[in-house]
Design a protein that fits this description.
This protein is of the alpha+beta class and about 180 residues long. The chain has two domains: about 100 residues, no CATH class; about 60 residues, no CATH class. The chain is built from eight helices and five strands. The protein is globular, with a radius of gyration of 17 Å. The N and C termini lie far apart (about 40 Å).
Length: about 180
């Protein structure tokens, strides 16, 4: 559904821009965005929340998942995140979701074999039927996915979760 973004919701979101504590660190920024989403999640379409993996993303411990250098500038985020008003509610939650994923996604430093312009990121894929969890690598640019052992993605239906350093070690990844 293409629900227009009402000014009241946008103005409420924009107030985050002036939260001095929200931009001290990447953990603080994660908490700022995740807490706002938690408080307003009922305003977003359930199918977009599910497709973006928002629920597991906002329910993690940021001290275990937020990466040291997600490749974004907190100073620029204060401008980028709040400068252009999205046209729809879904575009707003997509913007927030993308940023939250950047904050918690670990780069593998392995180049994408398809687009060669981006590195693959580590994620956990949980099969929706069997609940089996496997480590995958995904390209943000082109969507290429492979399993951590280098085998091709089989297209199974999964839920995607972030992975932290301790979990990577459990999967045998040397950091």
């Amino acid at each position: 559904m293409r629900q227009p973004l009402k000014m009241k919701l946008w103005n409420d979101f924009k107030k985050l821009q002036y939260d001095e504590n929200g931009f001290r660190s990447f953990v603080d920024y994660y908490l700022l965005l995740a807490n706002w989403v938690r408080c307003n999640i009922r305003l977003f379409d359930a199918s977009i929340i599910e497709s973006l993996g928002i629920t597991p993303l906002i329910d993690i411990d940021p001290s275990e998942y937020v990466v040291e250098n997600p490749g974004i500038s907190l100073e620029m985020e204060q401008i980028r995140m709040f400068s252009d008003r999205p046209k729809t509610v879904n575009l707003l939650i997509m913007r927030i979701s993308e940023t939250l994923w950047y904050l918690v996604t670990i780069n593998s430093n392995k180049g994408c074999p398809i687009c060669v312009h981006d590195d693959l990121k580590y994620l956990i894929a949980e099969n929706k039927l069997s609940k089996e969890r496997r480590l995958i690598l995904e390209c943000d640019s082109c969507g290429y996915v492979e399993f951590s052992d280098g085998t091709s993605w089989n297209g199974e239906i999964v839920d995607i979760f972030p992975v932290n350093k301790n979990e990577l070690v459990e999967y045998g990844v040397k950091l």
